[in-house]
Amino acid sequence: MSDADALRRIAEALERLAPAPEPAPDLNAAAAFVWHTGPDRLQPVAQVNRVALSLLHGIERSRDTLMANTRQFARGLPANNALLWGARGMGKSSLVKAVHAQVLEEVPDAGLTLVEIQREDLPSIGRLMGHLRASPDARVILFCDDLSFSHDDQHYKSLKAVLDGGVEGRPENVVLYATSNRRHLMPRDMIENERSSAITPSEAVEEKVSLSDRFGLWLGFHPCGQDEYLAMIEGYCAAYGLSVEPARLRAEAIEWQATRGARSGRVAWQFFTDLAGREGVRL
Fold it and tell me: Which of 175, 230, 247, 276 is most buried, most CB within 10 Å of its CB?
């Protein structure tokens, strides 16, 4: 084999190991994208899985606050990063997607784009920010669902640097919305354990806890009461044209949540899905 052939084969092998970077993404190609790595790319989402804003009940204060913040951002005005934390199934991620759709409809020329990044891909967030910084005409909501960290998890450092702490910082055209079941993004028992075992307890968890301080908005989501739970189901019935005798609807809804041992927006939707199936109503 000649030297030229050998060099060509080496070049081809290197190309397979380290493929050329993908071209700059066209953020006008879709209203939403998912960030993938290996290779880095923004995958357009043809149809976002979301519910209408009008169907989200019991979270009106959080809804109004996030709406106002998102409207400001879409119009090129200052806006905060937002951490939506609290009870499971109360509509945190649904609210982010619904607010994006609502503001996109209100301000269609803003180029408001939703980009989802998975928690395990946070080490690549700097590269993603580089792509987004190169598209200043787009206004990007960077969305990370179910954000949390364990005691030996270093992913939070990547996120903390790009939020406020790095030299480049967060691009002006990007705002981060994250959801978590934990206000401080790490379990309470882990915080207490590290404080009790550290030489300097006050500093033991400061680095991780300070990540949540970089979110200007903290929106709490709390377990709903029975009246709110029933209002959610009634709202679904009205939206989809499902007519059920009120006493029967109430009794079956309460029985459903009793078997689940919890009340939440997710449980309400699961009951309504079952009810619609039994009544022959397509969703």
Answer: 175
| Dist. CA 177–CA 128, nearest whole Å | 15
Distance CA 176, CA 62 (A): 16
CA dihedral in degrees (244, 249, 252, 255; nearest 10)? Answer: 170
Residues whose CB falls within 8 Å of the CB of residue 41, separated by 6 or more in sequence, listed in order: 22, 25, 35
DSSP classification of residue 29: S
User: What single string gives the DSSP state of each residue in 34-59?
Assistant: EEETTTTEEEE-SS-----GGG--S-
Q: How many angstroms separate the CA atoms of 46 and 41, rounded?
A: 16
CA–CA separation, 33 and 42 (whole Å): 6
Place of tokens 């052939």: 5
* Cα gap 49→114, rounded to integer Å: 12
Query: Dihedral sign, CA of 39, 45, 49, 53?
Result: positive
Q: Which residues of 77-97 are buried (b: 16+ CB within 10 A; e: fewer)?
A: eebbbbbbbbbebbbbbbbbb
State the Rg of the chain over Cα.
23
Residues of the chain where predicted confidence (pLDDT) is lower than 50: 191-192, 194, 199, 204
Q: In what order do the strands lie in the sheet with 82-86?
A: 41-44, 32-36, 112-116, 139-144, 174-180, 82-86, 217-221
Residues whose CB falls within 8 Å of the CB of residue 153, separated by 6 or more in sequence, listed in order: none
pLDDT in tens, 54-84: 989 889 999 999 999 999 999 999 999 999 9
Kindly report, residue by residue over 93-139, the tens digit of the pLDDT: 999 999 999 999 999 888 899 999 998 888 888 889 988 988 888 99
Amino acid found at 94: S
